[in-house]
Amino acid sequence: MTKIDIAALDAEDPLACFRERFYLPEGLIYLDGNSLGPAPKAAFTGFGEVVEKEWAEGLIGSWNTAGWFAAPKTLGDRLGAFLGAAPGQTVVCDTTSINIFKAVHAALGLRPGRRVVVSELDSFPTDLYMLGGTGAEVRLLGRDGDRLEDLIDGNVAAVLLSQVNYRSGALFDMTAINRLAHDAGALIIWDLCHSAGVVPIALDAAGTDFAVGCTYKYLNAGPGAPAFIYVAKRHLEEARQPLSGWWGHARPFAFEAEYEAHPGIEKFLCGTQPIISLRGVQAGLDALDGVSQSALREKSLSLTHLFMDLCEPLCRDYGLVPGTPREDRQRGSQVSFTFEHGYAVIRAMIERGVVGDFREPGLMRFGFAPLYLSHADIKRAVEIMESCLADRVWLDPAYQVRSPVT
Amino acid sequence: MTKIDIAALDAEDPLACFRERFYLPEGLIYLDGNSLGPAPKAAFTGFGEVVEKEWAEGLIGSWNTAGWFAAPKTLGDRLGAFLGAAPGQTVVCDTTSINIFKAVHAALGLRPGRRVVVSELDSFPTDLYMLGGTGAEVRLLGRDGDRLEDLIDGNVAAVLLSQVNYRSGALFDMTAINRLAHDAGALIIWDLCHSAGVVPIALDAAGTDFAVGCTYKYLNAGPGAPAFIYVAKRHLEEARQPLSGWWGHARPFAFEAEYEAHPGIEKFLCGTQPIISLRGVQAGLDALDGVSQSALREKSLSLTHLFMDLCEPLCRDYGLVPGTPREDRQRGSQVSFTFEHGYAVIRAMIERGVVGDFREPGLMRFGFAPLYLSHADIKRAVEIMESCLADRVWLDPAYQVRSPVT
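^ inputs. structure came back:
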């Protein structure tokens, strides 16, 4: 692929105008939006407003006048719309881990007599850790069987899967797997951490039962910003979850001694939410305003495709092993390689202005956010990766002591 | 009490210099710090720094370089020191509700065979709601018995109490009740939401087992800022809690499929924390730096005492019923009255520049934060309350439609 092709791809990019909505340090190529998205410029004023005006000036009254109390629901509906969910099914709250706990408990409650949850050995570990805490019996794709369909039987209450795998970047077909689960009478819980904001998602249309995810990766809401949970309307009346805090009460301000779950999605709320961090979710959604899902997907595939093409000679020459599906429909917006010197290469690339990340063992991982990356960025990133490989940076003692790359 | 006495009290106030650490709107007397503390001035730069420098410039690297990953522990140790806890027993994370869930589960696990948790009917409701979600058998002071000692027997795993009652402002004797629980082989869980920051607390010295609380009341950390949990060192090895997320893993960055709880207080962490809201906890602790616990307590009692004295004629003339203990050792830093027109009076007082709050049914509630209130403020607040009562503001239709006062 020649330089001219790349310039043409960028010239025709309908999403190029979104780049200016984000702050990125001068000269940096950021391929780590799958770990922490960059700051939308609007966040600077957004946080200033919530701190200086709403908290400092408005004080307690801002719970109502500034919409703080309603924020998990207001933001949930807005995020839900982006994920193909009608209003009243999504709230922004707590963490992905805690929302997984709620969803698994709710699913077990909706399928009495069934105690098995099917998941994937290669899930982001917290999903499995949280499953362990629910007391469910766990079957894992990649350990207990080769095919998902062999694991799902009449004992399975729910299937919990990441739509995009955090290591390989592989993408599951949501509709097909929902059908697989439903055919066996099981429910589906999707972890959208690595897909929300970059893969078109249609929760209602796909017949999804539950979904959870974080907002600080491709939704650019800021470090550790509250997560979200979606529960399909058809389950809301019957669903229960044990984190029955006051924000989930039918009448939270009546201060009744007995808990009565809110009839709506609010029953999936628990305690008071971190309002200032929540403002980041608003900034992140503002930065997505007006984006076309199909343009997002098209550019995402174009970026990952270009990256994989340009990396082919490096794989051949240095022994990097590609870990990401080449076929478009099986790929999220992330590309990874395993390489024994991956840690040193990622560290050196960061020092040369390209931020990717490293996961033990030996995984070099690059995320591609169509809103702020150009094809020229990708070409430059590969050139820098090549320079690190050519320099055999792993021989440099500075890159041999491991400090965590979060 | 004459005007001269009040001026003298303020002139001799060793905490008067702390007032300038807080931003308070011009002319406002804020008696609602027991609901949401005001903004420490340092918060303005603190939030700017975490957003503009650490997130926007530092991006993913700030998890390490800016201490984000360590923040729950770093802030926990610092808050712990203020609450009389040696390092390694406190983390700042999640919400009070969720931390109650963790503590109750841990206590039940440490007392196998015992399924009862004793609490108080008049607890902040979320404590009871969360208890309900744990599956514990619940006995309530105020419903099942008149005296706490009659409720605690060999079936009781834990006693969960608010140190300061959110309605009456009554203060429990932590050491005495710890002894009561321990004598029956039960553990104690203290909810410090309405005492932390205003009542001297010595968790280790009192032999407390677990404590939880929020940081956004008298700790002034901002709306919905993350809560805290303390677990006494002697329980850390054996204690388990079911919200077993990746931040509680012994090796969170090893990405192992099996959960292994961290040996320390970190096992009480679960998912990724809201870093920007966490920065408010730092600002709140900074604003407390150098305060003397005894001076804090002395001024708190002086303020509440003065308020109750000045309100006596109002109670007599208008029928407000005092709900707060007059005896110093039984009182936190809050005074409340029940009054049938309480809602209208609180609303009118707010419009006249004195912020208190209202809780159903009929409870007028005032919090007294020694760091930013003067005795002159208290006198003025009572004058304004008196003007609202004299004006019979409840006859004004504007104050009859209820909107929630959070």
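The CA atoms of residues 159 and 232 of chain B lie 15 Å apart. The first strand of chain B starts at residue 29 and ends at 30.
thumbs up if we can close this ticket
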